[in-house]
Amino acid sequence: MKKIFLLLVLFSLLGCEKDDICIDDTTPRLVIEFYEKANPTVLRNVTNLKVTAEGETEFGVFTGTSKISIPLKITDTTTKYSFIINSTDTTFSNEDFIEINYTHQNVYVSRACGYKTIFELDTTSPFVATDAISNANLWIQDIDIVTTTIDNENEVHVKIYF
Amino acid sequence: MLKYIFSFFLLLISFSGNAQEATKKGSIAPKTERYGIRFGADLFKLTRSFYDKNYRGLELVGDYRLTRRHYIAAEIGNEKKTVDETQLNFTANGTYIKAGFDYNAYENWLGMQNMIYIGLRYGISSFSQTLNSYEIYNPDHYFDDAPTINVNEKYNGLSAQWVEVAAGVKAEVFHNVYVGFSLQLKRLVSNNKPNNFDNLYIPGFNRTYDGDFGVGFNYTISYFLPLYKATVKAKDKKADKKK
Q1: Which of A84, A103, B122, B189 is most buried per CB count within 10 Å?
Q2: Residues near A115 by Cβ (< 8 Å), separated by ≥ 6?
Q3: Could you give the 3-state DSSP secondary structure of residue B3?
Q4: Which residues of A touch B210 (CB under 8 A)?
């Protein structure tokens, strides 16, 4: 009787299939961190940074944060974004375009998650910033690619100095 | 309870006294049991092949009575199963063999040969997996979701090995015809996975889980082919009585 009971307990435990729900890390976003141009080791918060991908509706407006995560197109090798700093201020707003070039690859995760896409930034022009008016007007002053392999969101991939 | 156990033993002792007297006089024929080979098939796998279009399987089972309580047992089978998960669709196809022994724990009455047994098996499966299609899991829905990707990629030469503990019953329903049911608990010993995919279904082992464990069951019908009869030895009888 005891043995049968133990078996029943075991089977009921197997019934709770935790691998039915996707809980693993899947397709990562690009993690960008903002730093002070004058003091490159110091994080700098953005103010009303409006982020919109080309041809899409607004992704979001970020304020009081120095770190943002943006998705990349998993069916393309280029994703273009518009970054408008001080977007609510008509005199100080400044729009820069960012073009991210990469290759992507689909990697198996698990039964519940299926596959995820991981990205490898292009070695020659991974992250290009251009200004809406003239490049002399760029608010993004410097870019530092921390890692070209984007396979998780636990680390910062790109540093922007302004 | 103690009272009952005591009276039960008293009853046993009185029987054993009788039995000894009887054998001395030689009026009772010695108890014999039949030994032989039993072979059959898993009915569940067989019937499922008819009603489930995503499944085709056959399992042949057999055992040979080695001693009074021990049986050498084996199962051989072939399975093809298509699994449709939310994120994946794949087909596993392959052949397996499981071999080991069963221990009959059931005390049969004279002339009966039913089993309540526990068994141990070692299983080997050789199979292929075809990834029919998959979806990319993207927690961010800012861009349009990627369409389902049809790959139709076949991974050949996969294999797995496991040990399993089985518990079950076998009952004689007609003369020499047995119906059986068993539950199995399995643990993978080796699992040769494909590159950039996983063995999500292993023929013979069934569905894999996060850990190495698996479960299974079968529902068999089999035929017993008697080969010879053997007299139950006195010491075995005594052992029975003690129980």
Answers
A1: A84
A2: A106, A107, A108, A109, B87, B134, B135, B136, B137, B149
A3: helix
A4: 18-19
Which residues have C-beta within 8 Å of that of residue B220, sequence separation ≥ 6? B40, B41, B42, B43, B61, B170, B178, B179, B180, B181, B182
Which residues, including other chains, have CB under 8 Å from residue A16's CB and lie 6 or more apart?
Answer: none
Closest CA of chain A from B26, distance in Å: 40
Examine residue A19 and state whether it is found in any structural domain, yes or no.
no
Eight-state DSSP code of residue B145: P
Partner residues linked to A82 by β-bridges: A52, A97
Total domains in the fold of chain A: 1
Which residue from B226, B222, B241, B194 is spatially nearest to B40, judged by alpha carbons?
B222
| Domain residue ranges in chain B | 31-242
Q: Which two tokens stand for residue B85?
A: 């998960």
Q: Do A10 and B167 touch (CB under 8 A)?
A: no
Asked if residue B115 lies in contact with residue B103, where contact means CB atoms within 8 angstroms, the answer is no
* CATH number corresponding to B31-242: 2.40.160.20
Q: What is the pTM of this model?
A: 0.79
Residue A150 structural domain: 29-161
- Cβ atoms of B208 and B162 closer than 8 Å: no
Q: Is residue A23 part of a domain?
A: no
pLDDT band for A132, please (50, 70, 90 cuts): confident
Position B239 scores a pLDDT of 55
* B142 touching chain A per CB within 8 A: yes
Residue-wise pLDDT tens digits, A69-126: 999 999 999 999 999 999 998 888 999 999 999 999 999 999 999 999 999 999 999 9
> pLDDT tens across B211-227, in order?
899 999 999 999 999 99
